[in-house]
Design goal:
This protein is of the alpha/beta class. The chain contains 14 helices and eight strands. The relative contact order is 0.10. It binds nicotinamide-adenine-dinucleotide.
Length: about 325
């Protein structure tokens, strides 16, 4: 199957390399000419275990290619993945500039049916925005071409990205189109042999699923830090408490390491964006807002540096003192 991926960052590169490795023909497009030149020279701009080898092998077979030529990208794949960045805007909302730029590019160059796959983490309603931008571009070209936009959020975590992509617990696809379902089945078929991991749902549900997942994990981290602060004041040992609650399979050991709160490239911006979405629909989500406030507090300068004699609460550990377990809490 021919697949184009816009954005050769963390998610785009892992997606491209993995899909090429299972036999698809993949063309990765990026606006960063330097990055593409380095990739074409065999250099991998990020460190992710196993990625360099995967890219090398699949470039050698010709199944994985890199270009800055967006028109070539649009002409290439039936599936057009959007895997560009969605950083936090000043007001906390997700900045969709890059996503909508790609939509415009697709509308400007497409000449036949295309399936646009939103893999970037984007707020509910973005698939409709992408569709509107493509329609507007087609309108400017006085063309009426069929296309579908679906949502396929990514759940990989940096450091275990290839394993997560290839053997993740689920593949979420938001669409109401049978044509898209069938194309996505073909795309992810090789990952689906052991059991059916594809979860088809409505587009808006798929978009919300990604934010709900990250907000849930961030909540677990903020929660254990709250307990750590309490433990310190109550003379309890949060490590013992962590073991005590983690042994309950309904709670589990993941994401309950007390420490400096959540970090990484996604949790902070995704929690903010979900809080912003909630405000926008007139439902200030109190739990999400509390998680965000807790995180902000944990980022403040340590209290003991300001007031001699005062101890830093357990939930406000020095960021340099992150334990090994904490690394896995970043996503
Ligand atoms: N990094 C993660 O661990 C992770 C995990 C799951 C989901 N996500 C989500 O995936 C998306 C991408 O994240 P990332 O970490 O890969 O971002 P990134 O910043 O590493 O890469 C984004 C790439 O997109 C390129 N780009 C920007 N505009 C473009 C355009 N118009 N056409 C082509 N390329 C363009 C940039 O040059 C850059 O190389 C984000 O929405 C992020 O929230 C990230």
């Amino acid at each position: 199957m021919r697949i184009t991926i816009f954005g050769s960052g963390y998610v785009g590169l892992v997606t491209g390399a993995c899909l090429a490795d299972v036999g698809h023909d993949v063309l990765c497009v990026d606006v960063d000419a330097d990055k593409i030149a380095r990739l074409n020279d065999g250099e991998v701009p990020i460190y992710e275990p196993g990625l360099e080898g995967l890219i090398r092998q699949n470039r050698a077979t010709g199944r994985l290619r890199f270009t800055t030529d967006a028109a070539e990208g649009v002409a290439f794949g039936l599936l057009q993945f959007i895997a560009v960045g969605t950083p936090a805007d000043e007001d906390g909302s997700a900045d969709l500039r890059h996503v909508l730029e790609v939509a415009e590019t697709i509308g400007r160059h497409m000449t036949q049916y295309r399936i646009i796959v939103d893999k970037s983490t984007v707020p509910v309603g973005t698939a409709s925005k992408v569709a509107r931008v493509i329609s507007a571009e087609l309108g400017r070209r006085r063309l009426q071409l069929p296309f579908d936009v679906c949502s396929n959020p990514e759940f990989l975590k940096e450091g275990a990205a290839i394993e997560d992509f290839s053997r993740g617990s689920r593949i979420v696809v938001g669409t109401d189109s049978e044509r898209v379902r069938s194309a996505m089945r073909e795309c992810y078929g090789p990952y689906n042999r052991n059991r059916d991991k594809l979860m088809f749902m409505g587009v808006r549900s798929a978009e919300l699923t990604k934010y709900a997942a990250n907000a849930m994990l961030a909540t677990k981290i903020s929660f254990i830090n709250e307990i750590a602060n309490l433990a310190e004041r109550l003379g309890a040992d949060v490590e013992e408490v962590r073991h005590g609650i983690g042994s309950d399979p309904r709670i589990g050991y993941h994401f309950i390491y007390p420490g400096c709160g959540y970090g990484g490239s996604c949790f902070p911006k995704d929690v903010k964006a979900l809080a912003h979405t909630a405000e926008q629909v007139g439902h200030p989500a109190e739990m999400i807002a509390a998680v965000e406030a807790h995180q902000r507090a944990s980022e403040e300068p340590p209290v003991r540096d300001a007031v001699p004699g005062l101890q830093r609460p357990a939930g406000r550990q020095d960021h340099r003192a992150v334990g090994p377990g904490l690394q896995a809490q970043h996503r």
